[in-house]
Amino acid sequence: MSQALSERIKSLPASATLAMAAKARELKNEGKDIIGLSLGEPDFNTPDFIKEAAIEAINADYNSYTPVDGYVELKEAICEKFKRDNGLDYAPNQIVVSTGAKQSIANAVQVLINPGDDVLLVAPYWVSYSAIVILAEGNPIEIRSDIETDFKITPAQLEAAITPKTKLVMLNSPNNPSGSMYSKEEYEALAKVLEKYPNIYVLSDEIYEHINYDNATPFSFAAIPSMFDRTITVNGLAKAFAMTGWRIGYLGGPAWLAKACTKMQGQVTSGTNCIAQRAAITAVRASVGKIKYMVDEFDFRRKRIIELVEDIEGFNVNVPKGAFYIFPDISSFFGKKLNGTLIENASDFAMYLLEEAHIATVTGDAFGCPNNIRISYAASLEEIEEAIRRIKVAVS
Q: How far from chain centre, in Å, is Cα 50?
């Protein structure tokens, strides 16, 4: 009975991406020809060299409970990765392996945030950030950006949002949903603001770091010397290595925070899957060249989908530097009727595309940007071209 549910779960919003995917599956089961461009999931198989490492682990009889914070060998490999790719010096006791980067983020927020603490979400932000903060009884505070600024905030905006209750800032670059990427200089300018507030921490979500284009170079916030001890760096294998279902994420941060996250995880899930962890050792140690074929294909699709969307009147799109989404501004349709349907906001527009064109996207409201929708190009070129053709017909 719903009245028996806790206030905590009643106040928790459902994931907009998962809700749209569920609605799309429902229509598909009714026989509708739905093209799903709502989920952030690579349409590639996990590379063979990673699968082979998993098979070897199975044959070597890895089947027991794992250490809560991850196998030592995996944590050592993650330390090597942080040094190699990000210039970050972490020790194994500063690493916690979790069941996906989402759990890494949730762990960090749970151990840092007290009821009433403010958490600054740099919009657009991944849909689960606000829900994770709400679950910790914190206050999610949006700092908004838009397409005119390439979906990036300024130091002045950051400073204006800080209050005596601010405890944490959550950053994500390359960004989901916009694909925008902060440069080293842009992050250093934000750090100059935060240097004045020594009790504010930063969570840097870098899950898309290996999916980048046009020679753009991802930069880790923790690589700024003054911010290293106050930054929690989160990453994982789902996106770049096409390992979404393997559920491997990890964080690097101060040893005291890693210890607290291990304590939290020990009472929730305990250690991550043993076979996935053994395969992850191979993945983390692999060179970026091993996944270049996937990034090259995403880049080709990126250029094609932008070319097609730019031809739709009323769509305004930036050029993403990373991830595999476009985030067009569709506010020109607000207040208008499309085939008899009044479009008042981005949620109306996304639902209209699903029902009229049978294309699943995600409303920008879920990401803190109410003028946009997210369209994933982690789909085949044929699906992308047909989807944009249908959208163009539906809005013309």
A: 22
Measured CA distances, 395 to 25, 103, 333, 349 (Å): 23, 39, 9, 10
Taking the C-alpha atoms of residue 327 and residue 382, their distance in angstroms, rounded to an integer, is 20
Which one, of 265, 190, 186, 272, lies nearest residue 231 by Cα? 190
The range of the structural domain enclosing residue 16 comes to 2-45+291-395
Share of the chain above pLDDT 70, in %: 99
What whole-number distance in Å separates Cα of residue 368 and Cα of residue 362? Answer: 12
What is the rounded distance in angstroms from the CA atom of residue 303 to the CA atom of residue 321?
Answer: 11
Contact 79, 63 (CB under 8 A): no
Pick the last residue of a domain from 263, 286, 309. Answer: 286
Reported as a single tens digit per residue, the pLDDT across 75-118 is 999 999 999 999 999 999 999 999 999 999 999 999 999 999 99
If one counts every other C-beta atom within 10 angstroms of the C-beta of residue 32, the result is 12
Residue 17 reports pLDDT greater than 80? no
First-last CA distance in the chain = 46
Contact of 243 with 263, CB cutoff 8 Å:
no
Report the predicted TM-score, pTM, of the whole model to 2 decimal places.
0.95
Length of the chain, in residues: 396
CATH of the domain at 139: 3.40.640.10
